[in-house]
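User: Could you check the structure of this?
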Amino acid sequence: MKISKVVFPVGGLGKRFFPITGAIPKEMLGIIDKPLIHYAFEEAVAAGIEEFIFVTRHGKDSIEDYFDYMFSHSEYFNIKMGSVCYVRQNEPLGLGHAVLCAKNLIGNEPFAVMSADDFISHDKSCIGEMIKFYDGSNMAASMNVPRQDVSKYGILDVDCETDRLVVAKSVDEKPSVESAKSTHAIVGRYLLSNEIFDVLSRLKPGAGGEIQLTDALLEMIPSHGLVGFKFEGKRFDCGSKEGLLSAILHVAHKSENLRHVVENFYKGES
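Assistant: Sure, the predicted structure tokens are below.
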């Protein structure tokens, strides 16, 4: 099934990176020579997505400036500027609210949602691989996490699974270690029916006082199902300092020009 539009929720405050995020959006924090949002954008382009919707807020103008520059240099992207739209999220009220802000630009078609915080390193586009398996059911990228970390994620209650797919009968946002039904966690890649907007528009705040996308996915399971996609590659939580540093070291070590810097550092030679 063709997916032509993606929503990038980039309106978060990035509190874990204060004070730098008082001046620079966390999505513009760099992994070597490119910001996080650049990597997510490249992944979407590789998946064949053609329309890019950024849900932004006050203080995020540098994201727009960055892509203005990129689109004026064809050696980076050969995509028309008209394919990019920016929507304001006046308050950071959660991922579900950010997605809802894009409603008028989606129309009556399924769409993708990608979080730049979730940096996934692999030769293939994660969202592109998901699109190959998409059958109209709501879908989220999924990975197994240590049980002690389940309270950081939306966790699937598994009905059945195959090599690549996990069919869920329920999903719980940030459950306790004791109450989690599995260790299959959702991470920041989604393929969604446009009907999710009707659900999001009437949702009450959930965990953390925010409009949670997982609450909408849960409500839609009887009508649209929910499938976890077991993606390939290594995922880094770049919404945390530890995750961002790990991603930088990972990318540097993969680079022929920079690998020696990492190796020398661990040898105590730098």
